[in-house]
Specification:
By secondary structure, the chain is α+β, with helices and mostly antiparallel strands. It contains 3 helices and 3 strands. It has a 3-stranded antiparallel β-sheet with strand order 1-3-2, with helices on one face.
Length: about 90
Amino acid sequence: MIEILRTNDPIRLDYAMVLLKQAGCYPFVADRFMAAAEGSILAVERRILVPDEFAATAKEVLTQLDAPPVRSSGADEAPDADDGGPA
């Protein structure tokens, strides 16, 4: 197993796990219960490990963690209040 991510941000951790599971990388969260043992102070970062043969795929998938959000095409957005038409 190889470590591919270390964080104490629960949102980042969960999103990374979703991405890795979808890619079929068989992720494992190490140190999951250390925060409880330490009094839930988030001093111990949790680590995501994957089997060695999935390391390259996992690192590629995790580039999506820091990618900017994809904006919608605008088809679902409400029109502006001032559309330039007659009042």
